[in-house]
Amino acid sequence: MERAFYVVEFLGLMFVWAVGLLALVAVILFIIDRSQTQDAIRRNYPVIGRFRHIFSELGEFFRQYFFAMDREEMPFNRAQREWIGRASSGKSNSIAFGSTRNTSVPGTPIFANAPFPPLDDEFAKSEPLLIGPTARHPYAAPSFFNISGMSYGALSRPAVTALSKGAAKAGVWLNTGEGGMSPFHLEGNCDIVYQIGTAKYGVRDAEGNLSEDRLKEVAAAPQVKMIELKLAQGAKPGKGGILPAAKVNSEIAKIRGIPEGQPSLSPNRHREVDSFSSLLDFVAHLREVSGLPVGIKTVAGSRVVLEEMFEAFAARPDDVPDFITIDGGEGGTGAAPMPLMDLVGMSVREALPMLADLRKSYGFQDRIRLIASGKLVNPGDVAWALAAGADFVTSARGFMFSLGCIQALKCNKNTCPTGITTHDPRFQKGLVVEDKYKKVARYAEGIISDVETIAHSVGVSEPRKLRRHHVRIVGDAGKSEPLGDVLAR
After folding, report:
1. What confidence tens digit (pLDDT) does each residue in 421-460 have?
2. Strand partners, 230
3. Is the Cβ–Cβ distance between 48 and 30 less than 8 Å?
4. What does each C-alpha distance from 383 to 36, 74, 97, 380 come to in angstroms?
5. What is the distance between the alpha carbons of residues 275 and 15, in angstroms, rounded to a whole number?
6. Which of 36, 173, 315, 395 has the maximum number of C-beta atoms within 10 A of its C-beta?
7. What are the two backbone dihedrals, phi and then psi, of residue 65, each rounded to the nearest 5 degrees?
8. How far is C-alpha 261 from the chain's CA centre?
9. For the segment 79-122, what is each residue's pLDDT rounded down to a tens digit?
10. What is the separation, in whole angstroms, between the first and last Cα of the chain?
11. How far apart are CA 452 and CA 447, in angstroms?
12. Neighbour tally for 24: CB within 10 Å
């Protein structure tokens, strides 16, 4: 009986020690997770955040039997996100055994390898490409891959700061988005594309009209290289933004040029622009006032409308935009009505080749630069766009993934767990700028390096020499055809 008592007492002590040890380990892990700067989830959710990574690791095995495969998720699948994650962390993107991509799916692009690719000493880096030759201050853009428009307000302060510093480190431009230019866009001293949306945030007067004085102030900043006039966005063509009063604090009000504490509604189009003729008037005016190259961002709805646009351009060649950013209907945003997100706007895969063909047929190939945007986040996407006719490619969500986005789909709720699209300090502390800006830069550099690899494999010395005959498109019967032949039909 006495022996049994000691056994029970021993087991009780062991249990207490075990609980105490677990509590001590939890405290140590809590301190480690709170103090580390590389993982926003662990920093914001100490200890329990580790389980996400454990489950992610185990998921590779369980998914084979019970869950979606690596290329089946939407809007971005696991393979796409993991490539960005490895690139932004500086890890190798080499894979083993074989591709998980189903290359028999109709529409899949396949690059045609050359029998005798360039030797190692025959490779070349892409040279800067001039935009806006008739502007007082043309821009020699150094990189074919750049950061698309994301506003301060939609993104957090640390996110914008990290993008600015990362863009400077990688030598790519950063588009401000339509929310105006914040000090955080300028902090990294990168090249800036200033976007003017329909509300004209940052360059508006009290009535919401264009303020020439404010535009001149913006254009005078040495970092600002171009002006982008946003006509439409892929995720919500024909829809203006809504900035709730709760988000219009003193800082946002000052940056955007709007009253503090009042909601701000963006018109669904620019009041000055109701035809292609008035569009050219406005573009020419912006270029004259700013002295910078001026382009437009739009979404294609039909070939007929694009033809009308180029006919207007042909009638007034001196006033044409210096670049056109063509956004696809598959583009993203912080918040948009589902019908517009799902159903409106032509895909960039269809619109870009169409726009490139019209530019060539009207003789504007050397005058108007084409920028492709819309779910182009991996090297194959970017290489396809260059081959299809783009001069540049921009990405927003790809760079969000490089910041640590986990596709939580909470961009519109101010509860983003990684601190990217929230103004809640509790979540923002997980995004450590000094770590994330390096990941932004490595992602851009990884894309550029791998697109160069694709270009070399098809037999050209650098990516801008990619052409349509270098790409084949898989058809309904599983047989591929040259991209040029597919588009000619």
Report:
1. 887 788 888 888 999 999 999 999 999 999 999 999 999 9
2. 297
3. no
4. 36, 22, 24, 5
5. 78
6. 395
7. -115, -35
8. 30
9. 787 878 788 888 877 765 666 777 778 888 889 999 988 887 77
10. 93
11. 8
12. 10
